[in-house]
Amino acid sequence: MDKQTQTEIEAATFRRIIAHLQKRTDAQNIDLMGLAGFCRNCFSKWYAKEADVRGIEIDKMTARELIYGMEYSKWVEQYQTEATDEQMKLMDESLKKNQDM
Prior knowledge:
The chain is mainly alpha-helical. The protein has a single domain (3-100), classed as Orthogonal Bundle (SMc04008-like fold). Helices cover 72% and strands 0% of the residues.
């Protein structure tokens, strides 16, 4: 596979992941963090960082809007639930695994 095709497939896959997360509002960020060590906010930070590497400035809230598919505050208001102590514990344990990344 040539590099251009690989890049196009990777970009399409990324868009599919983001669309999936936009649809699955029941999947809370805290649960994603606890299981996988990343969430929608991580995607938005990575997006902004990659833009910055390419000389494009995207602020945190604009990146979040791109990832969430709506204003972040609106998403939080409509879909975010209060984290339980167990969810926080799982997230903290998961984040420790990210320290080498």
